[in-house]
Design a protein that fits this description.
Order of helices and strands: EEEEEEEE
Structural class: mainly beta
Distance between the termini: 8 Å
Strand content: over 45%
CATH architecture: Beta Barrel
Radius of gyration: 12 Å
Number of helices: 0
Length: 80
């Protein structure tokens, strides 16, 4: 089955990086479109990020890890 890499999105105009504050799901969990799967913390706020696909999640970035915009934070095996 196909895998999709989830990259850290740009959630604000001045955002260059963010820290993974919390995962609401864990590796192996089934996720759905629109489900909040993790929270990121920037210098200005904490925001939840929604899942754009349905499938089985694999966490790549750990809680506390600072990621750049576009860096891979998770993978989803589609339809699994």
């Amino acid at each position: 089955m196909a895998k999709v890499k989830l990259k850290l999105p740009k959630l604000g105009m001045s955002m260059d990086e963010a820290t993974i504050a919390e995962w609401h799901v864990k590796t192996g969990d089934k996720v759905t479109v629109g489900q909040e799967i993790y929270a990121v913390e920037t210098d200005k706020s904490t925001q939840d990020v929604e899942c754009p696909f349905e499938g089985t999640l694999t966490v790549v970035a750990e809680v506390g890890q600072t990621c750049q915009i576009g860096e891979i934070v998770a993978e989803i095996e589609l339809g699994a």
